[in-house]
Specification:
Blueprint: H1 20-25, E1 47-52, E2 58-62, E3 83-87, E4 97-102, E5 110-119, E6 122-132, E7 135-141, E8 150-156, E9 167-172, E10 178-182, E11 199-204, E12 210-214, E13 217-222, E14 230-236, E15 242-244, E16 250-254, E17 264-268
Antiparallel strand pairs: 1-2, 2-3, 3-4, 5-6, 6-7, 7-8, 9-10, 10-13, 11-12, 13-14, 15-16, 16-17
């Protein structure tokens, strides 16, 4: 039996007593596949999300300055919390080039979606979406030099500031919409929005459309300019990311580490509540 070449880029937490290579070898993979190290510290530090662009480059968000409200003894690292582009320029399966697309995305960039812009067959830049509660942040490269030269909130009013329970999990759907998730985080750290009691978010888009939710995690979507904001489903805990297949069906993973047997894969039906 022969196998073709397949590539999957994922995040793996290394053990302190193992090298990155030893950690990769400890993974259980299907017959015919092999897990190898593409990048490790110090090239990438505390990654929170990855994405692969049309040229095979791996984009990574780093969240080094994380949960300071719960770790008062930590000192902020200036310029950290970055978005990086990792490249394998010599084809050996390992990253050997790093480009910092944007830095100082404080408190923590969560989630990653890339809208590439091509003109006359040439790459001319991109728009990058990441969660940065209370904002859903958009960073633009307007001249194709792989550096963000514009940065602004596409939407704002999300809870879970400086927390993985805030807004995250960006995904560009085949329908041209931006999908994303909001965990059950209420306030998180300081600096978050002033929300109504028990609210996890209250967001008004540029077209005046307002979405408000209480207590639980949600799946949302909007146009790429922030208009048409829609609450797709709710009743989740801290669903980190959604994916949409070619038939328009939405799926997500949910997380509940409180012993309630809530770590689950969900088929997301518009208007549904997942308990």
């Amino acid at each position: 039996m022969t196998f073709g070449v397949a590539c999957f880029v994922g995040l793996v937490f290394s053990f302190p007593d193992r090298t990155p290579e030893e950690t990769a070898k400890s993974l259980h993979v299907p017959d015919g596949y092999e897990a190898t190290v593409f990048a490790a510290e110090p090239m990438v530090i505390n990654p929170t999300a990855v994405e692969v662009d049309s040229r095979g480059r791996v984009w990574v968000t780093e969240g080094l300055n994380y949960r300071f409200f719960a770790n008062k003894e930590f000192k902020r690292v200036p310029g950290a919390d970055r978005i990086k582009i990792l490249e394998d320029t010599d084809g050996d399966g390992k990253a050997d080039k790093v480009t910092v697309f944007a830095d100082n995305i404080y408190p923590v960039p969560m989630g990653l979606a890339i809208q590439e812009i091509w003109k006359d067959g040439k790459y001319s830049g991109c728009r990058v979406f990441t969660g940065n509660s209370p904002d859903l942040l958009c960073l633009e490269d307007t001249n194709g030099d792989d550096k963000a030269d514009k940065r602004y909130p596409l939407l704002t009013g999300f809870g879970g500031n400086d927390s993985d329970h805030g807004v995250h999990g960006m995904f560009l759907g085949p329908d041209g919409l931006l999908y994303f998730t909001q965990g059950d985080g209420k306030y998180g750290g300081g600096g978050g929005p002033k929300l109504p009691p028990n609210a996890t978010m209250k967001v008004t888009g540029p077209d005046g459309r307002t979405v408000e939710n209480y207590k639980d995690g949600t799946v949302l979507r909007c146009n790429l300019d922030g208009t048409g904001l829609e609450l797709v489903a709710t009743g989740l805990r801290n669903n980190y990311e959604v994916t949409v297949d070619s038939f328009g069906r939405i799926f997500c993973s949910d997380n509940d580490d409180d012993g309630n047997h809530g770590c689950r894969m969900c088929w997301i039906l518009p208007g549904a509540h997942y308990g």
